[in-house]
UniProtKB/TrEMBL annotation:
Active site location: C164
GN (gene name): fabF
GO molecular function: 3-oxoacyl-[acyl-carrier-protein] synthase activity
Organism expressing this protein natively: Compostibacillus humi
UniProt keyword annotations, A-Z: Acyltransferase, Fatty acid biosynthesis, Fatty acid metabolism, Lipid biosynthesis, Lipid metabolism, Transferase
Catalytic activities: a fatty acyl-[ACP] + malonyl-[ACP] + H(+) = a 3-oxoacyl-[ACP] + holo-[ACP] + CO2; (9Z)-hexadecenoyl-[ACP] + malonyl-[ACP] + H(+) = 3-oxo-(11Z)-octadecenoyl-[ACP] + holo-[ACP] + CO2
The protein's name in its UniProt record: 3-oxoacyl-[acyl-carrier-protein] synthase 2
Any one GO BP annotation for this protein: fatty acid biosynthetic process
Record domain Ketosynthase family 3 (KS3): where: 2-410
Assigned EC number: 2.3.1.179
GO CC annotation: cytosol
Pathway assigned in UniProt: Lipid metabolism; fatty acid biosynthesis
């Protein structure tokens, strides 16, 4: 018998707040965290808006000297993980055995900013000026590694690197590990900090980014006038816990994670498969895994990037899977407020999905002004809406054809 897995803690660092709950309040109120970038040189690139984390102080969560030896994406992960553990009332070595606590945090790009900085130093100043911490600063697995060291977790330690699906794949694989008895608790999610001129240049040259100069209006998922995504940064962490372990210590339970689907398009390096064929299968797998019928789903936190193809093909995928029920459920994209956090997106959006169940509210898609005749679902336009949510899906779709769907349920004993 597979074990049941519940969510007992949440943590986040985002463009809308340096903790999960202030972020969530802003999400519910339709606040945008996107603004003119403070780190991008407008003379070098043609896009200068981003969803930046503001006022983050790593020394509040870790040793200041050690913080300087790690990438910003790892700093985010440590902060969000410690907040999630505190929220869960869980201390490794106290009410959780170190060897039964794991860490599984995904990142799509890792410390690309640190790589760029050290490479420039190498070219201009030579080998001796390159930091000996360069490699562990930028390799994507180091967020998980650093978190495990900070909290004393000695169980499974892993990192899924699947582009924009990294966070969701990490949570899904952590879920399976607990289901199958390999851990009692796993700190899991996604983290990213990739707002650099080279990253902007690469995405811009493939015409993936919005060229709208208005930061607050640029990200407009499902709107007819959408023209690309806005790059964001941050981290979202869940505490996944085996149900009996959580009950034994009297933990508060936010929701149950009950299903996970992961598929590949085998189609194109950046474009999604026509009509979201891979996303269709990921959603179907998650439903089947959870034993949930399509008509039981209330809300989908969409990948919803604000690019022409993603929003169309994800909408078509939802209609293919849910048939008539697609017009009864609600779909929204919180990226309209955070920007696209790449490998961190699935983690942050999983946090939103869990809190949506807790607070019985569906977050909005802001900047939805002009309906697209080809996109005809309920996208929760501009204002959050109350609803008793029993089943919520969260989709993440990544370059390389990676598709991941997580299914969360209202917890019932």
């Amino acid at each position: 018998m597979k074990k049941r897995v519940v969510i007992t803690g949440v943590g986040a660092v985002t463009p809308l707040g340096n903790d999960a709950f202030s972020t969530w309040e802003n999400i519910k109120n339709g606040v945008s965290g996107i603004d003119t970038s403070t780190v991008i040189d407008k003379e070098k690139v043609d896009v200068t808006i981003a969803g930046e984390v503001k006022g983050f102080k790593p020394e509040n969560y870790m040793d200041k000297k050690e913080a300087k030896r790690m990438g910003r994406f790892s700093q985010f992960a440590i902060a969000a993980s410690k907040m999630a553990l505190e929220d869960a009332g869980l201390t490794v070595g106290d009410n959780a055995h170190p060897e039964r606590v794991g860490v599984w945090i995904g990142s799509g790009i890792g410390g690309i900013g640190d790589f760029e900085e050290q490479f420039t130093r190498f070219l201009t100043k030579g080998q001796r000026r390159v930091s000996p911490f360069t490699i562990p600063m930028f390799i994507p697995d180091m967020a998980s590694g650093r978190v495990s060291m900070e909290i004393g977790a000695k169980g499974i330690n892993n990192c899924s690197v699947t582009a924009c699906a990294s966070g969701s794949n990490s949570i899904g694989e952590a879920f399976r590990a607990i289901q199958n008895g390999y851990a009692d608790v796993i700190v899991s999610g996604g983290t990213e900090s990739a707002i650099t001129e080279m990253t902007i240049a690469g995405f811009s040259n493939m015409t993936a980014l919005s060229k709208n100069p208005d930061p607050k209006k640029a990200c407009r998922p499902f709107d007819k006038n959408r023209d690309g995504f806005v790059l964001g940064e941050g981290c979202g962490i869940l505490i996944l816990e085996e149900l009996e372990h959580a009950k034994k210590r009297g933990a508060r339970i936010y929701a149950e994670i009950a299903g996970y689907g992961a598929t590949g398009d085998a189609y194109h390096i950046t474009a999604p498969a026509p009509d979201g064929e891979g996303a269709q299968r990921a959603m179907k797998e998650a439903l089947q895994d959870a034993g949930v019928a399509p008509e039981q789903v209330d809300y989908i936190n969409a990948h919803g990037t604000s690019t022409p193809y993603n929003d169309l093909f994800e909408t078509n995928a939802i209609k293919a899977v849910f048939k008539d029920h697609a017009y009864q459920l609600a779909v929204s994209s919180t990226k309209s407020m955070t920007g696209h956090l790449l490998g961190g997106a699935g983690g942050v959006e999983a946090v939103f999905s869990v809190l949506a169940i807790k607070d019985r509210i569906m977050p909005p898609t802001i900047n939805y002004e002009t309906p697209d005749e080809n996109l005809d679902l309920d996208y929760v336009p501009n204002e959050a809406r109350e609803k008793d949510l029993r089943v919520v899906l969260s989709n993440s779709l990544g370059f390389g054809g990676h598709n991941a769907t997580l299914l969360f349920k209202k917890y019932e004993a």
